[in-house]
Amino acid sequence: AYAKIDTARTQRTGYPEVIYGAGKTAQQIVGIVQAMEKRQQPILVTRVDLEKSAAVQEILPELAYDQTSQTLVRTAHALPAVGNIAIVTAGTSDMRVAEEAAVTAELFGNQVTRVYDVGVAGIHRLFAKLPLIRQANVVIVIAGMEGALTSVVGGLVDRPVIAVPTSVGYGTHLNGLTPLLSMLNSCSAGISVVNIDNGFGAAYNASMINHLVKEEQP
Amino acid sequence: AYAKIDTARTQRTGYPEVIYGAGKTAQQIVGIVQAMEKRQQPILVTRVDLEKSAAVQEILPELAYDQTSQTLVRTAHALPAVGNIAIVTAGTSDMRVAEEAAVTAELFGNQVTRVYDVGVAGIHRLFAKLPLIRQANVVIVIAGMEGALTSVVGGLVDRPVIAVPTSVGYGTHLNGLTPLLSMLNSCSAGISVVNIDNGFGAAYNASMINHLVKEEQP
Amino acid sequence: AYAKIDTARTQRTGYPEVIYGAGKTAQQIVGIVQAMEKRQQPILVTRVDLEKSAAVQEILPELAYDQTSQTLVRTAHALPAVGNIAIVTAGTSDMRVAEEAAVTAELFGNQVTRVYDVGVAGIHRLFAKLPLIRQANVVIVIAGMEGALTSVVGGLVDRPVIAVPTSVGYGTHLNGLTPLLSMLNSCSAGISVVNIDNGFGAAYNASMINHLVKEEQP
Amino acid sequence: AYAKIDTARTQRTGYPEVIYGAGKTAQQIVGIVQAMEKRQQPILVTRVDLEKSAAVQEILPELAYDQTSQTLVRTAHALPAVGNIAIVTAGTSDMRVAEEAAVTAELFGNQVTRVYDVGVAGIHRLFAKLPLIRQANVVIVIAGMEGALTSVVGGLVDRPVIAVPTSVGYGTHLNGLTPLLSMLNSCSAGISVVNIDNGFGAAYNASMINHLVKEEQP
Amino acid sequence: AYAKIDTARTQRTGYPEVIYGAGKTAQQIVGIVQAMEKRQQPILVTRVDLEKSAAVQEILPELAYDQTSQTLVRTAHALPAVGNIAIVTAGTSDMRVAEEAAVTAELFGNQVTRVYDVGVAGIHRLFAKLPLIRQANVVIVIAGMEGALTSVVGGLVDRPVIAVPTSVGYGTHLNGLTPLLSMLNSCSAGISVVNIDNGFGAAYNASMINHLVKEEQP
Amino acid sequence: AYAKIDTARTQRTGYPEVIYGAGKTAQQIVGIVQAMEKRQQPILVTRVDLEKSAAVQEILPELAYDQTSQTLVRTAHALPAVGNIAIVTAGTSDMRVAEEAAVTAELFGNQVTRVYDVGVAGIHRLFAKLPLIRQANVVIVIAGMEGALTSVVGGLVDRPVIAVPTSVGYGTHLNGLTPLLSMLNSCSAGISVVNIDNGFGAAYNASMINHLVKEEQP
Amino acid sequence: AYAKIDTARTQRTGYPEVIYGAGKTAQQIVGIVQAMEKRQQPILVTRVDLEKSAAVQEILPELAYDQTSQTLVRTAHALPAVGNIAIVTAGTSDMRVAEEAAVTAELFGNQVTRVYDVGVAGIHRLFAKLPLIRQANVVIVIAGMEGALTSVVGGLVDRPVIAVPTSVGYGTHLNGLTPLLSMLNSCSAGISVVNIDNGFGAAYNASMINHLVKEEQP
Amino acid sequence: AYAKIDTARTQRTGYPEVIYGAGKTAQQIVGIVQAMEKRQQPILVTRVDLEKSAAVQEILPELAYDQTSQTLVRTAHALPAVGNIAIVTAGTSDMRVAEEAAVTAELFGNQVTRVYDVGVAGIHRLFAKLPLIRQANVVIVIAGMEGALTSVVGGLVDRPVIAVPTSVGYGTHLNGLTPLLSMLNSCSAGISVVNIDNGFGAAYNASMINHLVKEEQP
Ligand SMILES: Nc1ncnc2c1ncn2[C@@H]1O[C@H](COP(=O)(O)O)[C@@H](O)[C@H]1O
Ligand SMILES: Nc1ncnc2c1ncn2[C@@H]1O[C@H](COP(=O)(O)O)[C@@H](O)[C@H]1O
Ligand SMILES: Nc1ncnc2c1ncn2[C@@H]1O[C@H](COP(=O)(O)O)[C@@H](O)[C@H]1O
Ligand SMILES: Nc1ncnc2c1ncn2[C@@H]1O[C@H](COP(=O)(O)O)[C@@H](O)[C@H]1O
Ligand SMILES: [Mg+2]
Ligand SMILES: [Mg+2]
Ligand SMILES: [Mg+2]
Ligand SMILES: [Mg+2]
Ligand SMILES: [Mg+2]
Ligand SMILES: [Mg+2]
Ligand SMILES: [Mg+2]
Ligand SMILES: [Mg+2]
């Protein structure tokens, strides 16, 4: 009787499997990946550091490691990229989270436009990129510090904005609580928020939205 | 030179104007509405209590007051309703926030499916409504207490979920911080979050997403 | 005059001694265990990592180490197992806490039913195990993330539920405060809560409750 | 298919219905009670102030109001009282919460032993009552201030203790967060905790536990 | 011996006396003002509501009340206005704090440029006013919500910025903690922060800075 | 002119110098001690770990290291011990803080009575020691977990109690905030509190109080 | 057997009874006072507002009401005043707490020296009063805002300082948490802290200390 | 069109570039510095530890490393020093932050007066230095613990004070939140605050203010 519920998530073909690598040993990751490999799906492991990735790759050389995003990926059977998701960051130190989002979005079959390092301390950088950002169906804004970039972008684009606070900062930054609170209280409408550093979650949401734009799919 | 930026939000015809009524006097609300009335647009004032609404209506009888959502609305020139947004609540006390979202969504030109009072304490209530919820392009989940409904819905539907924590609760509920934190840490993917009690913001987001589904528009 | 009070806890024969191993040196643990060994009781040391356990076992080889639960145990004189306690977890990363509870409960003379990895992101997993869970006299629910599993289980079973939040998560998870708050505000009745990661405490409570069911004792 | 789940809570005959009266109008309470009255069950409405109770009683004179516990009760069809639950409080200002627990427990078919005003500032008061407390199957400890009574009771009795922090205090009391944190970190084992001021929840839990002691039921 | 220290603040002629009116009775305010009136100085009482101001004015009709800033002022002997302080606000609800700052700054002998309602949700409003803002020696930025305006202004002007978070907001706004944290973590340099709603304090600082620009003084 | 102020603290002969060793290098500690050695005073360095102490002792062998209290001491010229300070702890893990207090108190010329490991989980242990504790002029109570011992002692003795919360605990213990809050809200009168783990501060206070009892001094 | 414990607090003749009036009705206060009046002791009721005091005095005209300290007192049988306690405040708004402390201390048999309104914004005021403060056996420092006065006093006197944070402030003052934290982290030694606004508690402590100075007693 | 905005910050000649070194690899720092070296400007890299500095200096030997301030500096083209900024610290452990401020201020063309280790525990140290401090145009006060020094200085000088809380402390110090809150609530006027440990930010602000004093420039 519950099989129908089951299919809701697990039999939805085409969606890649995503393994949260933090707090798992290399051995555990290998085990989970091997159990999955039968399925005709791309595979993504997030939050894997360099050392752990090497241990996994020794046994599973078909996985590619990307150090910036800290991900292990098997792109075979990846979905064709459709639509457009813009990923906008405030500073260079938001890059790890941004690339986690980008890698996830690409594997989930989305075209990604990267607009990095356009924080409001030098707002002209953002304006120069606005036309590019406005072509996207959905915009992911990633920012540490005070996260003001989110409100500025939200006021300038006409698309849903998914905000990701990052833990980049010190003192009263409170490990990311400050940009999180800032984003939840944005004076611009059209912004929703995910957990601190959750690039994966933002991309998952953005992908769902981007795929609603059916006519742009191949 | 900045006129182009200006148009991004203010010259975008068709979008209703929304006035945040809390902390404004009846007189101030009347003033703002009168300044707007020239434009061919629907008008929405949120967070207006009964007494204040009466004072406004004396001067502006064309505004209709809805006590549940605490809104004043002029529906003239409203957009035709397209697509579908499901609004799901955990308990009856989440109704004010839910109706704020519903009134907003309808005025912004969206069809709304209300699924109220299906909290997880009696989870069969939710399962009975699942087919209905799954027809929506985007789902708004509104919950106080611990907000667990969000995760359960997120795990059962294949559409973006926008979560709204409500301030309904006591003690360690911390005026809504508890469901907010709960929603940000959901074990289900595909969930993004707006501020506590922010029914308007959830509807604004959902409307943007729902309107991306172009072929369903009239 | 206070001897009577004393007996309330210490002369209650049969109850195993439990040592909290965190922050104690191997040497201190050995000392305490040796002072106890005269008594005809099982012995349990919690929160002992692999290295420390090896140092203890060198001197006390009669203690068995279990790496998942991070416990050292001497099962001699263990109580016969009666009744039934169900231990339900949301994810695989809750396992350390779950096994700390399980080892404690078993040593205290309770039958334990393990139902692991049935979090609400895939709720069908829980439903498949419900008949098993419903056979228990008391249910321990262990969850990190947002802890929503607790409310779902609480709404489906008719027995006392003891909830254990775990520190598994990141960002706004706040090292377990989020599921703790969530559990304290559950919309389901019949739930009480212990400290973050306190598998031992949950089992201690559950054992007391399970032993109240006298006719099921041998 | 889900009917079985439904019955888990709603068709369980004999259990009284409980309505949370805070934030409901007298009219809404009357409506809910009238919808229930067909069922052969006792009825309990919690968190009703004097004024609201009078308005309800005008229409439903069969409900009795108790000002200390702020409850409206229809005791017809109440369950026969079995076993024993001790309700222990630190101070007189914890009385509202204690009586909410007592009224709930009695309506759910439990014998209740009230031991009030035995806080640790004058610990001899507690010792004088210990023999009485030890006769209970389960002990509810209710305390504001720093909640130290919980740990002292927990160390002296051999039964499950359910702790209820109250919002009685000022300054760093933080509306009850201080005794809540204190209770969650008790040095005594066998204590679990419910939300601040949640007398109802403690009684619900205690009743479940007390009814497990089958042979003491009539 | 300490007389020298004394003069540092109290014998500095010309500086207006400022009375914090909140929590003082009309009678107490009258008493303090009367004790001061001998001195040849302007007088300022902040945080006085309409009712209290009327009671004070009955006895001291020489004080003028301003309802927006909630201040009572005697402008006799006011210092001549020099230099320029820009006061920039995000929204209309920040007006009370802004006018508290403006009234203070003017009484302390500063020219004030008001630039209100230029929040980043419609950033073109700010750009239109930039030339005006850039003429000031020091800029006060006042914002509720997420306070993003501060960072944008800080990145565009070359003068010290004093930021004032306001308590305007709801939910996770935490009565102004969110914009405070945001301002302390600004990605723009040159920003320092005062307490929530502290318009007086910002003006006091700004006045000190503005008066350092000696050649612009008359 | 300020010399009089100076003497208030620095020329008060007989009081030992105390150096806070945390965050200072061995070299810095040596430098400060050498600058002091001319004065005829005992010397105390707190918060020095084993390794750092060895480096200091190489150059200053006249300092004795105590590993439990993590202190380096030169007892030459120590004050004669007078009166009596009782130091009472809840558990063995509070020992480092307790010994920091004891070493400080002894060096400051106080007799110290140690009453360790008498936490309320087994309250009879405390009662057995009460006559001893009641002989002191002032009582220091040191406790982690929920700090309930403080309230129990406060209710049983007739002397000032100085409470020291310790950082011993986990989860909602919040690194000592829980016992701190508990102690500040004690239902017993006569308790004042110092910072978490501040054994030194408690002893400094207690010594001041103990020395007020003049006739007990030699 | 426990009678001895009992006497520790209740049979200690001479100590006045103190009733915490907040949250008690006039009727309850009357009841408690009447039960006490047989004993030959002074009586003190704290936290009683004007209206409630009038209701109590109608029945018990022998109680005197003091509006500043919000206390009701019967001074008959008061203890003779000995020694000296200095009560030092930062501002005039700390007066209610200061007078609660003063009234308590006087009723408990202590001479009190009031030194009010000497906050550090004008530090010469404090220096002028130092000789007076230094004559006390113990000093109570009461301050709102940032509580800096405590550290300055602590560095200038050679007696135990008991610090009382007050709830006077706004915004980040957090209802007194800011001065509380400030006082707990004072760079001056010899300071211990009681709960926010707890004038009574400070006086209770100070009285205990002041009475240790035996030779100064009559 | 946006070039004009750009110039606001980047074409402002003379202002040194500042690189935030924390979280950047030596390689990344080298890359950024090399890209800058064409410009005729001094270069400053903050928050560089010893090891990282050595790696940078191997490639860029023209950078000088200062271990106290943890900065790498190229002073070529430094601005001539004008005016005067006083940097005042409470304790020796605030030195890293103070020197970060001093190095920044000097590179930005300001004369700096260092007044270190004058905390209020021994307030005579501050008074001895007051004449020196009063010569500055702007005062930076840096303090950990409870930050009381800020209020004392603010009450004694007639210039803008920029306060920097430091993370030096333990327990309830909360990594610097305590002095931050203390500084924001100062009873002295004329104080504004920057983020915890943000010596750079304080110096940037102070430099802006100091340069407003035009006639004192060479
Ligand atoms: N970086 C990430 N952040 C948050 N959630 C993640 C991340 N990576 C994977 N997940 C989620 O974690 C789930 C897998 O968790 P696990 O079973 O512990 O590997 C996936 O289905 C995703 O929903
Ligand atoms: N005082 C109370 N505190 C907490 N929960 C309560 C209380 N009274 C009733 N409840 C719960 O609230 C539910 C009813 O909520 P409602 O439908 O809003 O009346 C009941 O089934 C109980 O589980
Ligand atoms: N363990 C400790 N905890 C708190 N304060 C201490 C401690 N040890 C020393 N102190 C204080 O720190 C001062 C010395 O600080 P410093 O100049 O940094 O060595 C002493 O005068 C004491 O007041
Ligand atoms: N120690 C510091 N604390 C805060 N901000 C800094 C610090 N050092 C540099 N910055 C700022 O950080 C900016 C450079 O950041 P980044 O591009 O990451 O190197 C500079 O323009 C400064 O505004
Ligand atoms: Mg937008
Ligand atoms: Mg989903
Ligand atoms: Mg249940
Ligand atoms: Mg127990
Ligand atoms: Mg700037
Ligand atoms: Mg006592
Ligand atoms: Mg002192
Ligand atoms: Mg000043």
TrEMBL record, chains A, B, C, D, E, F, G, H:
<dbReference type="GO" id="GO:0016787">
    <property type="term" value="F:hydrolase activity"/>
</dbReference>
<dbReference type="GO" id="GO:0006189">
    <property type="term" value="P:'de novo' IMP biosynthetic process"/>
</dbReference>
<dbReference type="InterPro" id="IPR000031">
    <property type="entry name" value="PurE_dom"/>
</dbReference>
<feature type="domain" description="PurE">
    <location>
        <begin position="83"/>
        <end position="215"/>
    </location>
</feature>
<dbReference type="Pfam" id="PF00731">
    <property type="entry name" value="AIRC"/>
</dbReference>
<dbReference type="InterPro" id="IPR039476">
    <property type="entry name" value="P2CMN_synthase_LarB"/>
</dbReference>
<protein>
    <recommendedName>
        <fullName>PurE domain-containing protein</fullName>
    </recommendedName>
</protein>
